[in-house]
Amino acid sequence: MNHKKILIIQGHPDSESFNFALAESYKKGAKEAGYDVQEIILRNLKFNPVLDYGYRKRTELEPDFLDSQKKILWADHIVWIYPVWWGSVPALLKGFLDRVLLPGFAFKKREGSVWWDKLLKGRSARIISTMDQPPWYYWLVYGEPSNRMMKRTVMEFCGITPVRLTSIGPIRLSKDKFRKKWIGKMETLGKKGI
Prior knowledge:
two-stranded antiparallel sheet, 194 residues, alpha/beta
């Protein structure tokens, strides 16, 4: 029995989206391989996505966020699945990041210094993002801003490394053959636990 603990964070607000099918396939593969799997499905959480006072004043965490933090601490590997909208992540996911990855939980600023301590070390991640353009175009023309942001300024900032990227597109106008291929690839990634 494999005891690696995998957390899947679903960032698409539409439960009928291709993102949900990708997550289910990854989860199926991971469970078949014997991994422990938990999920955070952002659309099902009850929370205010706005960090009302920035970091100046604490906003109390909703029960769903306290549970989310426990799951993040539990995990060895975190899989983020979301669509790329306007070169970024959905507002739902951005609100989750702002409210959950707080100072004292995900990182800690050092007194009198510009540096910080990374509090989520010892975990790896995979970012699975879908888009309506070919991934090579997103990388070449736009510099893949959402992937860079999630990898460098969120995951690695908090100490999560290595972070692997899987960009899937174009989704719009894609055929069944294309989607089935990616469903199969997700199951394979899940079985490998990466």
